[in-house]
Amino acid sequence: MREIARQSPELSKVISNAGGEQSLVEYITETKGPARFPGISTLGFIAGFDEQMALGIITSKGIEPLKDALMNEKESNIREAAAWTLGRIGKHSAQHARSMAEKDILSILLEVSFHITHVLISL
């Protein structure tokens, strides 16, 4: 699905109209580790194309599992994908950004960024 979603807004809309957002949110909620990556990145592609599709991810309760991945996954590529996807969800409007703020996403992004910077400096 990720490879389809990334191609165009129209193909992402097909996934969205078929209930793909809800299924992907359920998938990334139930899985942990590397298996989460394709679902997280697919949500990012979908969210980036269209304000309504991003809102669909929010209403499907997609912010919580993305927040969990950002905070708890061990592999950096999964945390990076979660941060990227959250950014693509929140970029569309004040309502989208408010949904992020209500889940304290900004402070977590800052904390994760600070931790990464601290580790790089110590190297």
Chart the SSEs and their pairings.
Layout: H1 2-5, H2 9-17, H3 20-30, H4 36-49, H5 51-59, H6 63-72, H7 76-90, H8 94-102, H9 105-122
Helix pairs in contact: 3-4, 4-5, 4-7, 6-7
Q: Provide the β-strand percentage band.
A: under 5%
Q: Kindly report the average pLDDT value.
A: 89
The number of distinct helices, counting runs of at least 4 residues, comes to 9
CATH H-level homologous superfamily name: Leucine-rich Repeat Variant
* Order of helix and strand elements from N to C terminus: HHHHHHHHH
Q: Quick one: CATH class?
A: Mainly Alpha
Number of strands: 0
Largest sheet: none
The fold-level CATH name is Leucine-rich Repeat Variant
Using only C-alpha atoms, the radius of gyration works out to 14 Å
Could you explain the architecture of this structure?
With about 120 residues, the protein is mainly α. It has one domain (about 1-120): Leucine-rich Repeat Variant (Alpha Horseshoe), CATH 1.25.10.10. About 80% of the residues lie in helices and about 0% in strands. It starts with a helix and ends with a helix.
Short description:
The chain is 80% helix and 0% strand.
Key descriptive features of the protein:
single chain, 123 residues, mainly alpha, Leucine-rich Repeat Variant, 9 helices, 80% helix
